[in-house]
Amino acid sequence: MQPxxxxxxxxxxxxxxxxxxxxxxxxxxxxVAAVVSNPWAGRYVEDLRPEILAYGPxxxxxxxxxxxxxxxxxxxxxAYGKAAVVGLDGEVxxxxxxIHTLHFGNYYRQAVGAKSYLSFTNTRGPANTPIMVPMMDxxxxxxxxxxxxxQFAIPDAPRADEIVVVLGGATSGRxxxxxxxxxxxxxxxxxxxxxxxxx
Length: 199
What we know:
Number of helices: 4
Order of helices and strands: EEHEHHEEEEH
Shape: globular
InterPro entries: AA_synth_put, BB2672
Protein name: Amino acid synthesis
Pfam family, one: AA_synth
Structural class: alpha+beta
CATH architecture: 2-Layer Sandwich
Organism: Ruegeria faecimaris
Radius of gyration: 18 Å
CATH superfamily: BB2672
Number of strands: 7
Strand content: 25-35%
């Protein structure tokens, strides 16, 4: 059993000026999306696992390979995330099923050397629905400079009986980051961040 992939879409954005000021280095965010036939579309299916176990590794490996190539190496990716959008003849559970398994996400985690979990969205919509890929630092969930959201759309996807499965990444955090991070907030509140018992 293999996923029926209609097409693969790549999104790549490089911001040179943010907030009326040049970035020290380009702020690059990118994604690779697979538009896949939804094997459960138009009906209620009790057991989704056979397709999840078959599709997850194929999609996880393929999208990861393309992301690493696009970035120029897994170590270049500092922030990462995932998303899925199911067409109108499917359930949000179907979108979740294809991205919320170790069979899918672990390929990407291992390729970029990550410790943090993959942030995510799973939604339903018609073709050209905005695809939102939330991201965070691959190793430090409290690093707010890398709280990012990549947004793009595919004009003809998802069709009613399709799912768009996406991996996203960034090579840095936001330019001119200046809102602090979670650890600074804790210090401001009088917590000793080096002593977990005080938090």
